[in-house]
Design goal:
Order of helices and strands: HHHEEEHHEHHEHHEHEHHEHEH
Protein name: EAL domain-containing protein
Structural class: alpha/beta
Radius of gyration: 18 Å
Number of strands: 9
Bound molecules: ligand C2E, magnesium ion
Largest sheet: 8 strands, mixed, barrel
Distance between the termini: 53 Å
């Protein structure tokens, strides 16, 4: 258990411990089978530019629907996949799917919609993600900017040098880089200053009721000013109401994502709605 624990990011570890030990073992074995049985699928959620509502990216979100109809949320199975190393093949599969998704969206005339992929800390350090992406770019003839990656802050803490190198390679390959759930980890000004980032995604905990909650408003205002001062874009996560979106618009946030702007859905559905809106 010791070795296993050491591989798991601190944040994820809490979430894993919330699942009973016996259940964890069963789940880890089931993840291995799920890959072979193709029980994973990706849903896509729009990220919109606030000024005009246009979709600038689709975030790929993993879904695991078991054969018996059971549903395991990614917050539970991703940490387990990280702990067992299975995040590497899962992550490769996800990137491949994202590359295909870009081609399908582009085929409908929307070449400028990026696909954003969550890349786990373990995956970034254990696999050569920039090389995997470069291969996909060649194979699928992806334009620069077609793929974005979202990293959480834990990656930057664990092996900052390796993480920084990988990020520089991604930047050279034209991959946009966002820090996910910004503000929930160990947000360090040092890495905001030193790493090749394009944007921060403000965690939905700070976006919640931002028009009415003075504390959240202060934090969001500060994060937007900080990001812009460093030349970074801002994406608000978890926007659920028109009031929140309004506040974000008035306060200069660049992009937004959340149920109010579109729920995660299978790619076909998302493409339908993009085509209808255009
Ligand atoms: P995340 O990257 O921060 O993704 C946003 C999460 O918020 C998603 O949960 C999304 O469904 C949910 N969400 C979106 N809009 C709203 C809203 O308005 N209100 C609320 N309450 N929630 C909203 P989901 O899909 O359950 O994913 C949870 C986390 O699992 C993700 O957080 C990400 O960290 C991880 N994850 C998902 N897919 C992948 C993947 O392919 N690879 C890796 N490594 N991690 C993934
Ligand atoms: Mg994300
Ligand atoms: Mg997030
Ligand atoms: Mg998250």
């Amino acid at each position: 258990l010791q070795a296993w624990q050491e591989q798991v990011p601190v944040m994820a570890y809490d979430r894993i411990m919330a699942v009973q030990a016996g259940e964890r073992l069963v789940l880890a074995r089931r993840i291995r089978e799920a890959l072979d049985r193709q029980e994973f699928e990706l849903h896509y959620q729009p990220i919109r530019r606030i000024s005009d509502g246009r979709i600038v990216a689709l975030e790929a979100l993993l879904r695991w629907r078991q054969r018996d109809g059971g549903f395991v949320p990614p917050d539970v199975f991703i940490p387990l996949a990280e702990a067992s190393g299975l995040i590497v093949p899962i992550g490769r599969w996800t990137l491949e799917q994202a590359a295909q998704a870009h081609g399908r969206v582009a085929a409908h005339g929307h070449h400028d919609v990026a696909i954003a992929v969550n890349v786990s800390a373990v995956q970034l350090l254990a696999d050569n993600v920039p090389e995997v992406i470069r291969d996909l770019q060649r194979e699928h003839r992806l334009p620069r900017g077609a793929l974005h990656v979202e990293l959480t802050e834990s990656v930057l803490l664990r092996q900052p040098q390796v993480a920084r190198m990988r990020m520089l390679e991604l930047r050279v390959a034209g991959v946009g880089i966002a820090i996910d759930d910004f503000g929930t980890g160990f947000s360090s000004m040092t890495y905001l200053r030193n790493l090749p980032l394009d944007s921060i995604k403000i965690d939905r905990g700070f976006v919640h009721q931002v028009h009415a909650d003075e504390r959240n408003a202060s934090i969001c205002r500060a994060l937007i000013a900080l990001a812009h001062g460093l030349g970074l874009g801002t994406v608000a996560e978890g926007v659920e109401t028109a009031e929140e979106l309004d506040w974000l618009r008035r306060n200069g946030c660049d992009q937004a994502q959340g149920y109010h702007l579109g729920r995660p859905a299978p790619l076909d559905k998302v493409i339908e709605s993009i085509v209808e809106a255009a």
